[in-house]
Amino acid sequence: MPASQAVPLGACVPPNTQHAVSVSLPTWEDNVDYEKGAQRVLSRMVSGYPRFFIAKPIQALAAHLCERLALPGEAAMLFPSQACAERCAAFIYDQAPKQQSLHSAGTGAPPAYEIPRAGQVRIVQYVVEAASKEAAALGGASDAHEGGVAVHCVLFPEALFPLAKQYWQHTGNGVSARMADYCLRIERANETCSQAPGGDCCSGYRRGSPHHRATAAAAVPAPETLAGADLEASAYIEERFGRNLDGKCAVEMKQALRRRIAGALGPSGPTHDAAGARSGEPPSADDVYLMATGASAVFYAHQAVLGVRAGKSVCFGFPYTDTLKILEKFGPGAYFLGHGEGRDYEELERLLAEHAQSPEGPIAAIFTECPSNPMLKTADLARLRALADRYGAAVVVDETIGSFANIDVLPWADVVVSSLTKVFSGDSNVMGGSLVLNPAGALYAPLRAALATVYEDLLWREDAIFLERNSRDFARRVVAIGRNALAVAELLQASAKVASVQYPKFTTPANYARLMRDPSGGAGYGGLLSVFFVGGERAAQAFYDHLQCCKGPSLGTNFTLASPYTILAHYYELDWAAQFGVTADLVRISIGLEPAGELLAMMQLALEAVPEC
């Protein structure tokens, strides 16, 4: 097995990568034990998917700020803006009684959460600022922020940490690991300078609550990242050899990203004249909103929709887990049509018609993924568009799995969201997301006005720079990955040990074909597929354990990455997920850029390990 594939349990994926997005869970049992909270797994994790695993630099910064700001028995969650912090506090107050009630009603057990009293959840703003040019240089911050970087700390009783973590996970709007690294370096440099003869330290907090304290004696923890000479060498390589740009270029790089995304979403031919499509001017860079994560894009799309029409939404098709949580927990709630085909269209029409006459008000929006994760189903967007138009609802499409290099969903959507963490970046070392408004959509003006009241650019400058660098060749990579994935899907589909392969070429193919860009230009079916085996979970485990590739959460990576998706995403609701075909024996594989022959040989070896039925 190549060294890059033999990644030990708990190590970064990709290996030796600063701010890696994934973590190695190489066996089926490792994934189960991770979900159970087994220490043999948790104690070895140096990273994890950033919305589920709070990165070590963020943990260190939170501990440092708790030393200065927290009361005894308090914990903290860190955000890059006051508005995010306020939403987190409101979420805790709103969800604590709701989840307590559900927990007690369902099990008869003690309440899951104590209900916080007024004032128990509070916000303190702490400003990190280099005390001097020497401190800035020592902290590796030649481009230090003028006026400092504000970190907004939500402080709450420790027992409420799971609720704050839910908000962090669902919205994707917490501070990024690179931002935490920056803050820790500056804090540590300030401390070093203040201890020098004649030194002074001007870093500190700005009060956002009457409760605060500072503990000057507490040492600033070293960020778990490159430091000192290694930091200088890394910056030299990144900046001097063209791999990356200086942080001062972040504004320009964000504009470059917006232009790149707008260009990729431009028209692709005859699909724009199909029934229900919105023909007109393609999006401009001003129609593209950059987000800190893909989940953040879904969250802000939902907020914008609620700003236009404050009704329930419909989630059409089985989505990535946090999409449904966002729709259910923020606002008036949502209907879930988890099959995303067949009778779900009739049920959608019934709900739209019923709500048009209901005191609750009309349905606000239809959310769907094209294709869906992990079942790779593609909705009939023309049919959804026609129904939405009839009842005045918005259509929000998440095209992350398909990628706007392969499919063109904008003509049928009011809003297109995407996780830029995935194939757009490919390097699996940075988080990001995008939201694009359709300028030809009937709801363009009201949605744009609603976004103006809620949207904040929370993409940390270094993250933007890495996204811009990584995405320069994304269109070429999408073509190569698509070809590899098609070959793998066809190999697995032909095996007698495989019950089915969920892949856009095989799964609701007619719907996908209507959205597909010109195949002669390289457009394909994407890089993701899900596999079910004739032998059920026993066969799936054998295949997974013998698969000689990186294994862990995430997708859209430049290297092949597999996971037992249902185990990771729905371990505590397996029966619920199984109702929609998302069973525990599902193995999801994100195909990478390896040579096709190597990939096919890898899959064949894993298939040979599956016992005969």
Automatic annotation (TrEMBL):
<keyword id="KW-0808">Transferase</keyword>
<protein>
    <submittedName>
        <fullName>Cystathionine gamma-synthase</fullName>
        <ecNumber>2.5.1.48</ecNumber>
    </submittedName>
</protein>
